[in-house]
Specification:
Length: 230
């Protein structure tokens, strides 16, 4: 997935009102950038971290700038959650998710009281796939999710479990944006209910996958599979 070009380098000054960040550019000017991420961005939205932002040419936009990447521990982290599904979709079509090869891909599939990220189909089975963007490490080299209590995420786990009874294969894919991560686990200290539900639904047959991304200043793509340790 190609990133917008060109990207402007700056330093994060602060994040505020959830969707806004102030960034100091290289020329010393201070700009406000939209932040497409509903989570806490713990460990990422830290004043002083190097960031890359894009500028839109659309004059109708309220904010011209968008926060794209944050440097954490020497790695670029893609906190743009609206890009996560596109990265996964591209990976699915390119055969980079080895557990899910050769499926027809449909986005935003309504199921139960939710809209799941993908329905995957072939001649043998149907798969409901939910994607979660992971930007937090709870331990060195161990990525975790969520970075804040997520009632929506809890509901998605229950929907995936319900899908099993209707004959679907159900998969949750944790898209790990932290380049240093070597494994994935639920963030029990942040949302113990989510961790408990994840273990329960996996015991019932939901599949949990984790893939680390390869993020550069030009693109984000699916890279290595990581072990999921529940």
């Amino acid at each position: 997935m190609k990133l917008p070009e060109p990207l402007l380098e700056g330093v994060l000054v602060r994040r505020y009102q959830r969707f806004l960040t102030e960034v100091r550019l290289a020329d010393g000017s201070l700009v406000t950038a939209h932040t497409p991420n509903t989570g806490s961005m713990k460990q990422c939205a830290v004043p002083g971290h190097r960031v890359l932002i894009s500028r839109s040419a659309n004059p109708a936009r309220k904010l011209a700038y968008t926060l794209e990447l944050i440097e954490v521990g020497g790695h670029w982290v893609d906190t743009h959650t609206q890009r996560s599904n596109r990265v996964v979709e591209e990976g699915l079509r390119d055969g980079l998710v080895e557990e899910l090869p050769g499926f027809r891909v449909r986005r935003e599939y309504p199921f139960g009281a939710s809209r799941m990220d993908f329905l995957l189909e072939n001649d043998r089975e149907k798969v409901l796939l939910e994607v979660k963007n992971v930007t937090l490490c709870c331990e060195p080299r161990r990525a975790c999710f969520p970075d804040a209590v997520t009632l929506r995420g809890q509901k998605h786990l229950l929907e995936l479990r319900a899908a099993l009874a209707q004959g679907y294969r159900a998969v949750i894919l944790f898209l790990v944006q932290r380049g240093e991560a070597q494994a994935f686990s639920p963030a029990d200290a942040i949302d113990p209910v989510y961790g408990r539900l994840l273990r329960e639904v996996c015991a019932a047959g939901v599949e949990a996958l984790a893939y680390r991304t390869r993020v550069t200043t030009r693109e984000n793509r699916i890279g290595e599979r990581l072990p999921v340790e529940l």
